[in-house]
Each structure stands twice: as structure tokens, then as C-alpha cells.
Amino acid sequence: MRFSYVLSLLGLSLIGAPDAPAQQPPTPPQAPASGAPAILMSPALNPASHVLQSGDQLELNIFSLPDLPKSYTVRADGRFNHPVIGEVKAAGVTVSSLEKLIRARLSKELRDPGFSLGLVSVSQMDVSVLGEVGKAGKYTLPTGTSLLELLAQVGGVTAKADPDGAYIIRQGQQVPVNLSTANQPKLASFSMRPGDIFFVNPGRRVSVVGEVREPGIYAVSAKSTTQFEDAIKAAGGTKETAAAGRILLVRPTLEKPLTVDLLSPPKNGSYPELTDGDTVVVQPRAVIVLGAVSKAGPMPLEGSETLVDVLSKAGLSQGKLDQVVVIRASDVREGNEKRETYDVEKYLKEASSLVPVPVHDGDLVYVPPQDAPGGGLLGGGGLLQLLLMARTFTSF
To answer: Which CATH number is 286-394 given?
Structure first.
């Protein structure tokens, strides 16, 4: 790829070469043809700001000496040799800075030091890109291209990519790379080198359904210690109605789903590790209502409902409203055999006699029937049977 950037001392102006008008946008990079490397120029590469380096080709034309060589390549030591001004250090400066240096040197040697300086081409390097990227293959890039620029050229990573599972093989050494959005500044400053191999591993494909904003299939990193949180975050996060304390892990090889409580520290130090094909189910917040009500079973929670709100939705029947039992999911998870009893009947008669009783996700509410033996609880089993029901509900 050839472009020119000419600095003319005659008018001290920038002149675009005829074959590359400044007003025309650069040709977009093409995917590599089969068996041939692609020639890619960084979209951020600007001749005016490009810092010269070894391998760059310059065109220096002294108007009063038209027979002198005009083409010069910056050597590995960062210099080039000119018949009139001798050794010139070019690497590490811009074309504009180099123009000032050459002008000062020529002014000492020539009466008419008019000249033009152009950047003909930049040095290039070959790198390989493999794995979960948009367009894998071998690419020829301007030397110094950043990893972020390379990612843009190859179409980014696929939906299957592990953002923490990429690495670069450089001179036999493996350099890990984090491709997360938060790490973009580092990717922008990480320069590729000749012969680098950039590889992006696939992540673990997990389905996320239920009370999330964008249900779907997402890739999570095999290295992550927060895979459940990562999967849910990728799905847009939870809705207000989500039960974060009762996340289900569904796996074909498991007899029944596992329950994960993201509101509490994991009992064994870590949550279960996700694998390919897993499904994460974010259940809706709900309280289970049993006994003498018209609509027994799970009752969705949409906000900060109270005990009376839940019973009103469930429909009161002929029950012992002065002995309404509440078993807290938090007590069940901690193994505490506790119950709370409330006189809702008195509240219905005297509206100010009962302080609002909040109910939370996983709680169990039981209204004893009028003819229930054993003090109004479920048969002779009483509290034990209620606890068993509560454990079943909160663990599934």
C-alpha cells in the first residue's frame, strides 16, 4: 500500500499526493484471500503523526540536486545515510520533526536548501490470528499496530469467545490477554510484534433464562470465579422481580437442578462451576401460601408486599386467621426451626392493631383450617411438616 505525505519548503505546506486525495476515505481492509496474507493499514495511522521506525521508506528530493537518490529506508539502527548531510537519525520522530532537522542540516551545506520530504510506506510485519475471532488468518500489518487495532481489523471476537481466555504466542512464550471492555486502554497500548500469534479460546456456552433483561446463550470464562454473576450480567442483569437467592443450575447430567444463593457466601467456598450446555434459571421472587386460602401455592412478589397483601391475593377462606404462621426462608437456609405467628383476624377488625409484616422471597405462609387438629397446624406433624414444605420450596 502506497501513500505520500509531502512537506514542501517552498510554501511550507502539506500537499497530498495525486494518487491519494486527502478528501477520500481510506479503502476498508479486506479479509485475507485463501493462501495469501491481507495487507492492512491501521485506520488510526496518520502520516502527519506517524512516528518513524525501522523499515519505513522515505522520499527526500533536493530541488537543486535532482540527480541525487531520492528513496531512503530507515535502517535497523533507526538511521539513514544521505550523500549531502550524512547519517540522519529518523526513528522515533515524526516526518514533520525530521523535516526540521533536515532543513537545518541542508542550510549549512547548500545555498538553496529547498526540498520535499515524503513518507512513502511504513514497515510491515506478519502476525497470525486464530480462534474465536471474526476473520481468522495471517495478516500483514504496519509495525507497531496495537492489539485493539488488530481486533478491529479482524472483526472482533465471536459470541463464543472467552474474554479472559485469549493469549499471544511471542517467541515461544505465552502472554495472557484480557479482552474485557474495561481492559481496552491496555489493549490500545499493547503493540503487536513480527511473528506474533494471537489466539482466542472459546468460552463456556451457558443459557440464561427467567427474570433477566436479555435471555439468551452467553460465553463465560473458564477462569472466572464469578461465573454465575458473569452470565447474568451478560444477559443484561436481573429484573426487579428476580429471586437472586434461588438461582437454578440445570444440567442434563444432574438428577435435579442445583440451587445457588447469590445473596449469601457459598457454603463450600465457591459456587458450582459452569460447563458447556448448562442453563442458569433466574426464578421470580415468590412466597408460598398454604392452608385455608382460595389460591394455594406460589404467589409472585412484585414489590415490598406485606403479609396482609399476600393473604388478600391468595383469597381468605374459613381459616384460623388468628394463628397465621410464617416460616422465613432465611431461617430454613440456616437450619433454624423457627416460626412466627400473627393474629391477622384482629388486624382485619382493628386496622391499626398489627404492624405491617413484610414477606420475602422463599417465605412460607400457612393459614390453619378451622377444623385442623394439633393446635391448628397440619395434623400431628405440626411445625415439622411445615418446615419440610418450606425446605422443599426454598431449595427448588
So the answer is: 3.10.560.10
